[in-house]
Every structure is written in structure tokens, then in C-alpha cells.
Amino acid sequence: MKKQLLLAACLLPLLGSAQQKIDSSYNNWYYEGRMDLYNQLNNQPADILFLGNSITERGEWAELLPGRRIANRGIGGDNTFGVLARLDGVIKQQPRKIFLLIGINDIGRGLPTEVILNNYHRIVTKLTQGLPGTKLIIQSVLPMNEGKLPYDYLKGKAAKIKALNEGFVNIAKEFKLPYLNLHELFADEKGELKAAYTKDGIHLEPAAYVDWVNWLKQKKQL
User: Fold this and answer.
1) Cβ atoms of residues 41 and 71 within 8 Å
2) Any idea what DSSP says for residue 196?
3) Which residues make Cβ contacts (< 8 Å) with residue 7, sequence separation at least 6?
4) Are the C-beta atoms of 86 and 53 separated by less than 8 Å?
5) Cβ(189)–Cβ(198) under 8 Å?
6) How would you list the strands of the sheet with 179-180, edge to edge?
7) Comparing C-alpha atoms, which of 179, 183, 14, 181 is closest to residue 112?
8) What angle do CA 57, 63, 67 make, to 5 degrees?
9) Rounded to the nearest 10 degrees, how much is the dihedral formed by the CA atoms of 210, 214, 216, 218?
10) Residue 157 and residue 108 in contact, taking contact as beta carbons nearer than 8 Å
């Protein structure tokens, strides 16, 4: 609770009178359960750490990358506030490389783009300062498939995703970090998530992660 109050307070200069409309919550029973697990694993060094929400959590990264020490730090439903609150554990693990993917749940709850980018900038700042020898890779928010989406609160968000990803590009340039546009792999000719990759328009089919890893290898990031 103290961390959530602190995060909300940090938004005051940015939001002014609009601050009360910002939902900065992240801590629920599922988040707590994953953190109970991760806190017991954070003393294990990792070659590669995947950090994000359910898109990350659902990836069988350790099996897809045999022979490497992999840490999956995805939490279903997580947002930029939740990632900010758990960076100490990530830094403690001292990974050699981090793949960061977060932001779609912030969009889903209607957070302004500037708020999400402010959080994202703070995430990148803390990781680069706390892990100066780690390669941090920024990944774009994935596209969604409107025709398959059962969640009304996520529909009509393509422009929000585009604006957020443009902001990520600028942050990557500022910190001189690699930026991976996942739309190159996952988007169809209309710019939507390929139908073959998803059942609900947002989450990926297990086989999609095989293509993802192969694409990362082609990009020389793995």
C-alpha cells in the first residue's frame, strides 16, 4: 500500500487536478502470489529475464531457450505501476539481458499516454542505473485483433497503442537502447494481430512464441 501511495504521489506534478481519475492500482491476489514466488527466486542469477504482463508470463521461455538461465517475470494483468513496484527484485537477480514488454493493461484501464510513458521512463531509468552492465531491450506493445476481442474496454485502442509505441521509440533513443517493433512479426496487412496467433484478440497462442523466439534470433537479440 505504501508503494502505491508513493507512485500516485509522483504523478501529481504531471496530472494536476486530473490525478483523482488515474487508477494506479496493481496489487491483487494474483500479483501477490506471483511475487511470493519470484521473491524466493530472485537470488538465482539469470542470463535472460523477460519482464511484463500475461503476454510475457505465458511464454515457455526456458523450454524455448534450452541451455540458458531464464527468468520469466511476467504477471498476468500487470501494468507499469506494478512493474515499477517490483524492480528491486529484478535488479537483485542481475540478469545479463532484459526483454521489457508492458503497457497494454494501462491502455485498457484508460490511462493517459503521458502517464504511461512517465512510468515507463522511470522503469527504464531505474533499470539502467541499477543494472549498468545489463542489456535492456524495449519491445513495442503488441497489436490486437478487434474481430476476436471479447473485451469491450480494449476495443478501439489501436491509436493508443500507436502513440504509446512512438513514445517508447523516443525513450529507447534517449537511453540508447535497442527497440524491437513486434508489429513486424505479429501484425497482419491491416495492422491487427494475426488471427492465427490468437484466440481472444490479445493473448498469443503457444505456438506464436516459437515464431517470436526465432524472430528475436533473426534480429540477433538472442
Assistant:
1) yes
2) G
3) 24, 81, 84, 85, 119
4) no
5) no
6) 70-74, 48-52, 97-101, 135-139, 179-180
7) 14
8) 120
9) -170
10) yes
List the grid coordinates of 79: 501494468
* pLDDT tens digits, one per residue of 146-175: 999 998 888 999 999 999 999 999 999 999
Q: Return d(Cα 222, Cα 217) in angstroms, integer.
A: 5
For residue 69, which phi and psi values (nearest 5 degrees)?
A: -85, 110
DSSP 193: B
Hunting for cell 491502455 — which residue is that? 107
pLDDT band at 79 (very low <50, low <70, confident <90, very high): very high
Beta bridge partners of 135: 97
Give dist(CA 158, CA 107) in Å, integer: 10
**What is the SS3 assignment for 162?**
helix
pLDDT of 116-135, one tens digit each?
A: 999 999 999 999 999 999 99
Q: Give, rounded to a whole angstrom, the gap between the first and last alpha carbons of the chain.
A: 37
Rounded Cα distance between 219 and 148, Å, is 29
CB atoms within 10 A of CB 90: 25
Q: Given the C-alpha cell 539481458, which residue does it identify? A: 97
Amino acid letter for position 190: K
DSSP string covering 17-60, please? GGGGG-------HHHHHHHHHHHHHTTS--SEEEEESHHHHT--
